Structure formats: C-alpha cells, structure tokens
Amino acid sequence: MRGLEYEVSRSKEVRTVCDAFVKGLRTILGDKLFGAYVYGAAAFPDSAPARDIDFHVVLKESLTARECTALEELHKSLAQRFPPLGGELDGYYILLEDACRRKLPRSQMWQRATDNSWALHREHIRAGRCIVLHGPDPRGVYSPATWPEIEKALRGELHYVEKHLHDYPDYCILNLCRLIYSYETREVVVSKAAAAGWACDALPEWRFLIEAAKKSYAGRSTPQEREFMLAEVQDLYRYARARIEQAKRRRHNR
Description:
- By secondary structure, this protein is α+β, with helices and mostly antiparallel strands.
- The protein folds into 2 domains: 2-140, Beta Polymerase, domain 2, CATH 3.30.460.10; 147-253, no CATH class.
- It contains 9 helices and 4 strands.
- It has helices at residues 12-29, 65-81, 96-99, 118-126, 147-163, 169-185, 192-202, 207-217, 223-253; strands at residues 33-39, 53-59, 89-95, 131-134.
- Strands 3-2-1-4 form a 4-stranded mixed beta sheet, with helices on both faces.
- The protein is globular, with a radius of gyration of 19 Å.
- Residues 1-10 have low confidence and may be disordered.
C-alpha cells in the first residue's frame, strides 16, 4: 500500500498539504504518532478534484491539552499557508486501541466527535483506497466491516443527504448515486465519480441532473445549472429512497 502513497492522488495541492500536515504531526506528537492515513476523494484516481482531505490520525496514547493546542495551531497554519484545501482537513484523531475495534471511535479532538461512517471508512482503507502518510499498512489495524455495520453507516449517509439537499445539491446528487449503487451491489468502495458514471447508464432519466452535479462539483457550473439542481434534487432523493427500499427487499427475499 505504501507504494500507492501519492500515485493515487493527482493533485499537487493535495500532496503539498499532506506533506506539511504529516511533518507537523511528527513534530508535535513524536513517538505518540502511530499512523496517519488519508482516504476519500484524494485516494481515488478517478475522483473529481478533492474539496477536502479526509484523514485518520492514529495515536498510541491520549492527547494532552498542550498537544491539542499545538494541533489546533497546525491546522490554522495549514489553512493560512495552503488555501483553500489546507483549511479543509476533515478527520479524526483516534486511539490505536479504538482503531482496532468495530465500535465507532471518538476523536481526541474537536469535542470528541464520533466517526459515524466508521464501517465505510474501514472498507475503503482496507481495499487500498488510502494514502499512507505515516505508519504501517492499515490493513493490519482496521478490521473488516460486516454488512449490518455498513448498512447502518449508509443510513447515516442518506440521513445527511436528506438534511442538506438544498445546501449542497451537487454533493447530494452524487452521493445519492453512490448510495443506490452500494445498496444494489453491496459494494461500498466506490468514488462519487465512478458511481455517477454507473448511474448515468443505470438511471438514464436522471442523466442530465447527474451530469450537472458532476460539472458543479468540478467548479464549472452555471447559475442556471445550479437552479436546475435545486429544483430537481428533492425528486431524486425520493426516487433514491424508493430504489434503495426495492434493493433491500430483493436481498431479503433471496
């Protein structure tokens, strides 16, 4: 996996931010740092330009107050030095003992947020969709996820989409494509771009909306296309809910 470190990331900006991030982690944490792993869009070669950098920093021991302060300063520095992506490091500082478990881990930073998509992140990382910034192969750390764990995480993703349809219509449209794909195939290691490509063929009636979302996610949409997405995203959500329920019934009846 280490050989894939930056091969999978086409963005020079991602590489620059990651290099500075891991350098700062090593300086602040020293031997307490077990591993630093990037997953999500940055780890998919077919992905649209990354809007953020998803990460897990795995720790051998709990953070001290002083270390938390230093890490906050590191993130502020990255945001100032490498805008906008340096300010979009989105992840969790978790203990090694928690990384080895199936239970949702709580972050050591930022009000101890919980990684509610833990099962999905584990599957992506174990499948090699991961950039190793520091530490051993994470497949020796993260355990495989069961389908009930995965489905619970997918339900959480669907709930998030429902709450943000009109805040981030392009993201929601592409993630609905991925959710339909994952329920119908039981394959969750897929980028939004690949799932959107699948959906354009499998759901031709939604092709124009999906293409508009892809264009918007790449930062190339027009005001008219945004209005189109806002007008149609609710209908796609309803369609996706119905299609997901059909997929679940088919699986149950087998």
